[in-house]
Structures are given as C-alpha cells and as structure tokens.
Design brief:
Layout (H helix, E strand, L loop, with lengths): L2 H5 L1 E3 L5 E5 L13 H16 L3 E8 L8 E11 L3 E10 L2 E11 L22 E2 L15 E6 L14 E7 L9 H7 L3 H9 L3 E5 L1 E6 L8 E11 L2 E10 L4 E13 L3
Antiparallel strand pairs: 1-2, 2-4, 3-6, 3-11, 4-5, 5-6, 7-8, 8-9, 9-12, 10-14, 11-14, 12-13, 13-14
Helix pairs in contact: 2-3
C-alpha cells in the first residue's frame, strides 16, 4: 500500500479534481479529519496532477470534515516552469472550505548539497515505550500509526511539570510499505499539538491552525524520528517545529505549526 491508498484518495476523470472519503481511519479520536491526513491528501493530489515532487507545502485549516463526508480537492497549477510548478489545492465539502494548501513542486539538478541538522542520539524504536492516549483509538488514525516515545512522558504521568519543550518520538505507518513520501511525512509531521501538552506537562494538546512541510531528501526507512520542538505558548496558541529523520540520520523534512491550545476533559 502507498500513501494515496492509505488515505483513500481518488482522482476523477478531471485530472484537476480529486476526492477523499472522510473515514474514521484517517480521522482523530475527536471525530474529525486529522490535519496531517488533509495536508497529505492535498500534497498527493498536487503531485499527481503536476507530475512533480513537493518542495514545500503549507496548509491553512479553516473548518472540520467529519467521517461520512466526501472532501473534494480542486488543484490549480498557477505557474508551470521548466523545473518547478507553483500550485494550489482547495479542499472543500460542498461549499464549506476545509483547508487550502499552497505548494511548490519540482527538482533542480544542483551538484552541491549538505545537511546541517544532526539527528539526536536516541535509543532505537524497540527500546522505547509506546505512546498512550487519552481515549480509545480503535479505528482512528492513531490506531494505524505506531508511536514510541524516546523522550517524553506517558499520558498518565503528565502532572503539570513543564519540560524543556522537546519531545522525541519514533513513528511509522505499518500499512505504507512502498516507501515514505511527502504525503506520508505530512501525516507524521502533524505532532506539534501533542508536543505542546508534553512541553507544558499537561493533559492537553490542540487543534492545528496551519502546517508547513518542507521536504529535504527522501530515503528508504521504516521508522521516522520526530524531533518535536515547542518554541512557545502564549495568548492561547502554541508554536513549534518538527524535524523528521530517517533511521540512518537523514533529515527528510521539517514541519512547522501553530495550534489552538486545549486542555482535555477527564
């Protein structure tokens, strides 16, 4: 299964229109489309329409799509150059806009390259404990992701003591066996809200306002290390960044977000 099949994304007879049936399997325990699923679907649609790979994509989340609804994705290729395409995807349920995504896609054959961010030294996934959740995750997106905490606290041990703002977590999508791509990284990169709860030391998190994915270098890997860094929480909003590393230490992408901070009931 690839990431497009994982999400259930379908292209219509019109190459510029795609559709996504919103199911529990790509939604949160709060019963709405997971932000990473929405961004991943929009990225996959723009890559499918343009025939080019994502350089960066930024999503603004406007409303919620619920299981049982069908979200249409309309792709516009605003500028098509020799090496790069600038595109836009408007994701909507009927006349209700759910998210809008702008992106650049392409490849430039440049001889120089370099990675200047090093992967933190952490134990391998099988030596880390599994992430616990505030509610049953059966049938939701979290049921389809395997998550193991290398630095952070279990849900039950969050007692109001702040951390240094960094959470390290291994994650993988067991169903996606054809390699990590930009859409898969969009799903795995939507964890700044989880990091906010860890940073504050509270049983909370938030709802994403945006997410910007910057794709660096894709390499084969089963697990992805998420280096979640919460920079600040102020005025009811949290801001942070996720560095995504392959098991061999390759920086594959970064994702930055702002979110509405919420405390979970119970």
């Amino acid at each position: 299964m690839d990431s497009r099949a994982f999400l259930g994304l379908q292209q219509s007879h019109n190459p510029f229109r795609w559709s996504l049936e919103v199911t529990n399997a790509i939604s949160t325990t709060g019963n709405f489309l997971f932000g990473g699923s929405g961004l991943g679907a929009a990225i996959s649609a723009m890559e499918g329409t343009s025939g080019r790979q994502t350089v960066w994509a930024t999503a603004q989340y406007l409303s919620y799509a619920k299981p049982g609804e069908v979200m249409d994705i309309d792709v516009t290729l605003a500028v098509e150059g020799h090496q790069m395409t600038q595109a836009r995807a408007v994701c909507h349920v009927g006349n209700r806009e759910i998210l809008t995504v702008n992106a650049a896609l392409g490849h430039r054959p440049l001889e120089v390259s370099g990675q200047f961010e090093a992967m933190p030294d952490v134990p391998p996934p099988d030596q880390c404990f599994g992430r616990t959740h505030r509610a049953p995750v059966d049938g939701t997106i979290n049921d389809r992701l395997e998550q193991r905490i290398a630095k952070g606290k279990p849900w039950e041990e969050l007692d109001g003591t702040p951390s240094d703002g960094q959470t390290l977590m291994w994650a993988r999508i067991p169903d996606v066996i054809q390699g990590v791509d930009a859409a898969a990284l969009a799903i795995l990169g939507d964890f700044v809200p989880m990091g906010v709860g860890q940073a504050l030391g509270v049983r909370g998190g938030g709802n994403s306002l945006d997410n910007t994915l910057r794709v660096v270098h894709l390499v084969p890997t089963e697990w992805v290390l998420l280096d979640i860094r919460v920079h600040a929480v102020e005025r009811g909003f949290g801001h942070g960044l996720v560095h995504m590393f392959a098991e061999d230490g390759t920086l594959m992408a970064t994702a930055s977000q702002s979110c509405i901070v919420r405390f979970w009931k119970g």
